[in-house]
Design goal:
Elements: H1 2-29, H2 40-43, H3 45-57, H4 71-74
Length: about 80
């Protein structure tokens, strides 16, 4: 008896809530219904290259030696001297 309730009521309700939340997310983020623009730093390829270069050089830390930012995405953890 409870399985009938799950397939008829609960599952469609959960799927409908996902659809509604995706629609609002898409409208607010991609369609910009509340206004706003994409920052120029995200549109500029040179900015991205320069940022990645600085991350590869190492980021100064206060408590220890500088290390490469986000080493997992770089696939090798190396210490910057």
């Amino acid at each position: 008896m409870s399985m009938v309730s799950l397939t008829k009521v609960v599952l469609p309700s959960v799927l409908a809530s996902f659809a509604v939340s995706y629609a609002f997310w898409d409208l607010s983020r991609n369609r910009k219904i509340f206004g706003g623009t994409v920052p120029p730093s995200l549109q500029n390829e040179e900015w991205l290259k320069e940022t990645l270069r600085k991350f590869d050089e190492g980021w100064p830390r206060e408590a220890a030696c500088p290390v490469v930012m986000n080493p997992i995405s770089r696939q090798n953890y190396r210490k910057v001297m």
